[in-house]
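Page 42, continued from yesterday. The earlier attempt failed because a stray header line got pasted into the input along with the sequence. Redoing it now with the clean sequence only.
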Amino acid sequence: QQQDVVKTSHGDSSKHRARVQLDCFGNTPLKVYDIYSQHIEDIASPDWIPKLHLTEEERGVVEAKGTVLLLGRSGTGKTVCICNRIEFDRQMFAGHMSFSQIFVSRSKKLCRYVEGVVGHHVTTQTHFLTFSELISQIHDWYPQLSAKANIYVSSLVTFERFKSQFYHLGNYDLDPLLVWTAIRSFLIGSIEAFQSPGRILPREHFVGGRLGRNRCRIPSVHRNEVYDIFLRYQRWKESAKLFDDSDRVNILLDLLGSLNQRIQTKIYVDEVQDFTQIEILVFFMLAGPENLFLAGDPAQSVVDGTEFRFEEVRSVGHFVAGERRGLVPQKPLTVNTNFRSHSGILNCAGGFLDLLFEYFPGS
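This time it went through. C-alpha cells are written below.
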C-alpha cells in the first residue's frame, strides 16, 4: 500500500508529493530497517536495535553541511536524523583523535534512548547529557572554572519556587507563568539581554516593542507592570542569595568567554525548543558556529517559561558569527512524513492548523 505525502510550508503554495510504503495493519508509514549480512547473528540478541532506513528527505538532512536546524512535528523522525548524523560525523572524522561528540536534551530518558541506539565508538568520545549534566561536565573539562562558579542547587529558583516564595506573596494580578516567561525568555534569557549592561534587557527595549510583536506575545499594556515585577524579583533574589537558571548560564558564559582554548566537538541537541537563547549560546561557544545539529518543534515545548522560534536560534548565530556571515545557520530544514499517526488524523489536524495560521498569523 502507498499514500501520497504532501509537504507544505505556511505562506508557500508550493507542494511536493512523495510516495511512502504504508503499514497495512496500522495505516501509518511503514518503518523500514537497514540490515546487512554481518548483522545476521545480532538479530538473536534482545538488545540489538537495527538502524532505520532513511528517506531521501532524511538523508539530505543527515548529510547537510555546517550547523543544521531541523524542524519537524512529533513522530517525523527528528531523533532518527540525529542518531544518523552522529554516525555520519563519526565516519567523517575517523582518525581525528581529539574529536568528540555531545548529545544534549532536557530529558534523561531521551539521552539514554539515543545512547542505546548509537552506542559508544572505539575512537570517538561521545557524551549523552542533560543540560544540567552538561554544565557540570563543563566544569570537569575546564577545572579553572569551578572555583569561580560557587553555585548550589539548594539556592536555585525554579518556577515552582518563584510562584510559592515570591509571586503569590505579592498579590499580583498577572498570570505567574506569563511573568516567568518574560524573565526567562526575554529580560534575562535573550541574546539582546546578554549584550546589554548588567545582562538585563533595558525597560525601553521590552516596553517599546523592539522585540517584535510576533516574537514577544505579552500584551503591550502589561509590559511595564511585568518589568516592575521583574525588578522586585531581582532584588528578592539578591537579598535571599538565590539564583535562577539564567543567572547560572550567564556566569558560565562569562567564564567560557575568558578561555583561550575550545574543545573540538560536535553538539547535537534534541527538543531545542526547551532552551532559551543564552542556553543555546552555550552550545555555540562550546562547539563553534559550524558544529551544531539542533532539532525541535516549537509546538512541543515542555519547559515552563520558554518562548521559542527557530529565528531566535539564527539570531544567536548572527551574534556568534559577527562579520563572518557565511557561518550563520541557514533556515531550518524540515521532515514531514509522520511515522506515528494515521494519515486521516494528520490531514484533519493539518487543516485545523492551516485555519489557525490564516486567522491568527502571530500565534
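Notes: The chain has a mean pLDDT of 83.
Reminder to self: strip header lines before submitting.
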